[in-house]
Specification:
The chain is α/β, with parallel strands linked by helices and about 550 residues long. It has 4 domains: about 150 residues, Sandwich (Jelly Rolls); about 60 residues, Glutaredoxin; about 190 residues, FAD/NAD(P)-binding domain (3-Layer(bba) Sandwich), CATH 3.50.50.60; about 120 residues, FAD/NAD(P)-binding domain (3-Layer(bba) Sandwich), CATH 3.50.50. It is built from 15 helices and 28 strands. The strands form 7 sheets. Strands 12, 13, 14, 15, 16, 17 and 28 form a 7-stranded mixed sheet that branches. It has a 5-stranded parallel sheet with strand order 19-26-20-21-22. It has a 4-stranded antiparallel sheet with strand order 2-6-4-5, with no helix packed on it. Helix 1 runs parallel beside helix 10. The protein starts with 5 loop residues before the first helix and ends with a helix. The relative contact order is 0.10. One of its GO terms (molecular function) is oxidoreductase activity.
């Protein structure tokens, strides 16, 4: 029986909607063989070629690789190991096809492909492939499933990705690992001083005084790169044509933004999504969402975001990842959004789905421990830091409840601290009952953290009962702060009207007194959905609903101006 580590599970659920324990064990779905009818229909969309053995079809780092259907011969899919060395991952044979998730976008691809012998194949350009997959729906479904499973296999087996070298789970190591995992990018983490780590350090000349280091195939080393630098080097951000005017720009890729992107792109709106970090937003850090419609056993925030991210790309939405929106202005009949790195995005309409940022505790030395013991997410990556230790969860909402239940599977004990008399007013009943019934979770009401202790890393926490004044100090190395968020609207300046708390006001009557879309802001053509919208219900399901419903308002807005 095979088992997966928490880190592997985290990587897998980031994009694997099929939740396969090992995709390579599902050969019929991961590497399907098409039947004669499917071959004939698919071949009509491409061009047949005969190529000699050793012909390179695509290489790691290419953008916009073609799709190949094998009629005779074989195609070797390989990863680069450095120093000109390669290793074959799999071999496609008669009536099988190449590709994985990056065939739905213009990111740099992860692997190379070459003919293993003299071969006859059908080549589909990216435009041909998109036309085929949208028209031949049965074939498209087979290909989509295979692409998802292939990427999931890369993640599970640490193939075709990068190597992350560090002294331990430092702030920047976790930052880089989270960013890659949440963006579905394979990463192998080397913290222990073993033979594999020493080989990488010596072979690639890693500067041990400037860790963490990211080693990219080809032996290039990035010493403690910023998120944007890493995204650029790995090609996670697609190139943006600054002169192109999109129909719609969605700012933020949380549940509401992803929903808006999927529905807009599926209805033939030319759509781009601008996201500062990774698909999913705050919901993407949730270990398990159990009350989302259609998932009776629950689904992680990463897996849900992964489904929607793939779905949006399937319909043609473009994603600008690791690019924060910095300013917005109206320019004639369109809007211009300045994004990090100096680029700009132009669009006819805008959906603000930029959500909120995590609220922090007001404590001395608090910033010192962020990423060194204080966390805002509870996924398997954080869970593996808590093995057989006591941890603290601060907060009384659903995110805090989900985190406490999830972490109880890793930690020796979970202490939940809330300032109120109980949880009933702020948390779903199923989570309240689960916390009450767990022998590994203790609820501390009317309590708040008063002191944090530790030199470089957090190692002790003191909390105080606000009514009795009694204090407790425990050896705790990890605190999960889930006390809500503040709207992510500073970058908007005075572009749209905000309420007293900084949330975007929507739905006011027009000058004539006629009712407007509930998602319309004070500026025509700009809409707001999800957590950033004033008076919205802060739930994943409501955010998804707002994102989808908003698109009808955008169609109406565009129709009035055509």
């Amino acid at each position: 029986m095979t088992t997966t580590s928490p880190a592997q599970e985290a990587a897998q659920t980031s994009v694997d909607p099929l939740n396969a324990s090992d995709p390579y064990a599902r050969e019929a779905q991961t590497f399907p063989v098409l039947n004669d009818d499917q071959i004939a229909r698919l071949a009509d969309y491409g061009k047949t070629e005969e190529l000699e053995k050793g012909t390179v079809l695509f290489s790691r780092g290419d953008r916009g690789a073609d799709f190949f259907l094998l009629l005779e011969g074989s195609i070797e899919i390989y990863e680069e190991l450095g120093n000109g060395r390669t290793e074959t991952i799999t071999v496609h044979r008669k009536h099988q096809f190449t590709g994985e998730l990056d065939l739905f976008n213009d990111r740099k691809i992860l692997v190379g492909g070459r003919t293993g012998e003299d071969s006859k194949l059908v080549r589909l350009t990216r435009a041909d492939f998109n036309r085929m997959s949208s028209t031949e729906q049965d074939i498209g479904e087979i290909i989509m499933r295979a692409f998802i499973l292939r990427r999931s296999a890369f993640l599970l087996h640490n193939q075709a990705g990068v190597t992350l070298v560090d002294h331990g789970n430092t702030f920047n190591c976790l930052r880089i690992q989270r960013f890659l995992v949440r963006n579905g990018y394979p990463v192998r983490v080397l913290n222990d001083d073993d033979a594999a780590r020493r080989k990488v350090i010596e072979g690639c000349r890693v500067d041990m005084n400037n860790l963490p280091a990211v080693v990219v195939p080809g032996d290039k080393v990035l010493q403690n790169p910023s998120t944007a630098e890493l995204a650029d080097e790995l090609g996670l951000t697609e190139d943006i044509d600054e002169d192109h005017i999109f129909d719609l720009a969605v700012v933020g890729a949380g549940p509401s933004g992803l929903s808006a992107a999927v529905y807009a792109a599926s209805e033939n709106l030319d759509t781009i999504v601008i996201e500062e970090e990774a698909p999913g937003g705050q919901a993407g850090t949730s270990s398990k969402i159990e009350n989302y419609l259609g998932f009776p056993t629950g689904i992680s925030g990463q897996a849900l975001a992964g489904r929607a991210w793939i779905q949006g790309q399937k319909f043609g939405a473009q994603f600008a990842i690791a690019r924060a929106a910095e300013a917005i202005r109206k320019q004639g009949d369109s809007f211009e959004i300045a994004i990090a790195g100096g680029a700009r995005v132009r669009s006819r309409a805008v959906v603000l789905a930029c959500g909120a940022t995590y609220r922090k505790l007001s404590l001395e030395n608090y910033e010192k421990y962020e990423g060194q013991g204080i966390h805002y997410a509870a996924t398997a990556i954080e869970g593996q830091l808590c093995g057989d230790e006591e941890v603290i969860v601060v907060g009384g909402g659903n995110s805090a409840g989900q985190a406490a239940v999830f972490l109880s599977g890793f930690a020796a004990h979970v202490h939940v601290l809330v300032r109120q008399d109980g949880l009933a007013a702020s948390m779903s009943d199923y989570l309240v009952r689960r916390i009450e019934q767990s022998s590994k979770i203790t609820l501390h009401t009317n309590s708040e953290i008063s002191e944090l202790h530790g030199e470089r890393l957090l190692n002790q926490v003191t909390w105080k009962n606000r009514k009795s004044g009694e204090t407790s100090t425990r050896d705790v190395h990890n605190v999960f702060v889930m006390i809500g968020a503040v709207p992510n609207t500073k970058w908007l300046g005075d572009c749209v009207e905000l309420d007293d708390h900084g949330f975007v006001k929507t739905g006011q009557a027009s000058g004539s007194g006629a009712p407007r879309s509930p998602f319309a802001t004070s500026i025509e053509g700009i809409f707001a959905v999800g957590d950033v919208r004033a008076s919205s219900v802060k739930r994943v399901a409501s955010g998804v609903g707002e994102g989808s419903v908003c698109i009808s308002s955008i169609h109406q807005f565009m129709a009035e101006r055509s």
